[in-house]
Amino acid sequence: MGKKNYYVVKEGSKVGIFNNWAECQASVKGYKGAVFKGFETKVEAMEWFNGRDTVSADPSGSINSIGPIDYEVYTDGSFVNGRYSYGYAFIKDGEVVFESNGVGEDLEAASMRNVAGELAAVQHAVEKAKTLNARILIYHDYSGISHWVNGDWQAKNKFTQAYVAFMKAHHGLYEFKKVAGHSGDRFNDYVDRLAKEALGISTK
User: Record's Gene3D superfamilies (predicted)?
Assistant: First the structure.
């Protein structure tokens, strides 16, 4: 194994590409959920770093584009009083063409709070894409949605492991794009309301 000459930090106090371990370590030390990796060449480092926005999970673990996108899909989850929910919307030409929401039924999964809803939203959206024979770009505001699938985060419980297995089984159908939560993004706010409405949470 060659010497690591470059270090990429995707999630940390400072995000970027560093050419020494000390700077990388300073960016990730004490940062919960830090995501970083070392590379021999700058090209490899830049490819991994630039893949953080739009990636599909190939079984080999490589980052690649799947080609034309048929729909943009926004997903979100919510949680209240021991119950979780999901919401998602298919977008075409800036308009909602299909939407769905619902309440999760797995009481054990509810221990993950709104994350359980986030995972459910993505899986339901992928299942819908499969019935439409469509390729989708999934917009999500929780980092784990893509990080668990592409291996940046380790899936440690049976729910995240099942999620990863499901997504890898459908790897040709989707790409990911991270958006900031509660940032005024029209459709991110829209699916946030969908998820909350499934639990009877007022969004007025």
Answer: Ribonuclease H-like superfamily/Ribonuclease H, Ribonuclease H1, N-terminal domain
Return the CATH fold of 6-50: Ribonuclease HI; Chain A (3.40.970)
Q: What is the pLDDT of residues 33-78, one digit of tens each?
A: 788 888 888 888 887 777 643 333 443 333 344 458 899 999 999 9
pLDDT of residue 182: 60
Kind of pairing between the strands at 71-80 and 83-92: antiparallel
The fold of 71-199 is Nucleotidyltransferase; domain 5 (3.30.420)
Average pLDDT rounded to a whole number, residues 9-19: 84
Domain range annotation of the chain: 6-50, 71-199
